[in-house]
Amino acid sequence: MSADPNDLRPLSPGHFLIGRPLTAPACSDLTATASHRLTRYDRVEQIRQQFWQRWSKEYISELQTRTKWKTDKKDIVPNTLVLIKEDNLPPLKWRLGRVQQTFPGKDGISRVANLKTATGIIQRAYSKICPLLHNAEDYNESLTTHIS
Known about the structure:
Blueprint: H1 13-17, H2 40-62, E1 81-84, E2 95-104, E3 110-117, E4 120-125, E5 129-131, H3 136-147
């Protein structure tokens, strides 16, 4: 058997995060290309890119606090670790930040927060931040909410 031993690689975290090893070369954006014009390899890459595009818009949005619709949900409190969504960047390049201050509107519901990042302080709307669970109580509450 003359097959390349490198063909049998173990699954790595990269396979689950971006669909291939983290050391794989970057690919051009194929999401808008007509699928009938692509080679089989490029078509598989296009499907992978479309998956991540949907994942970043749909799944990550599920992690966000929806205070407008869930009035019993806690507000994002200072020191909460958040993922900052950037529309023009892939999810692996999104920054992390910590909430420093929130700004309630006239109705008492906060929709904007100041976030401390590695490069400074920025202000973002709640629609662009995803709170990450920081303790077991929040994790259990989240599981209960999603199951019921």
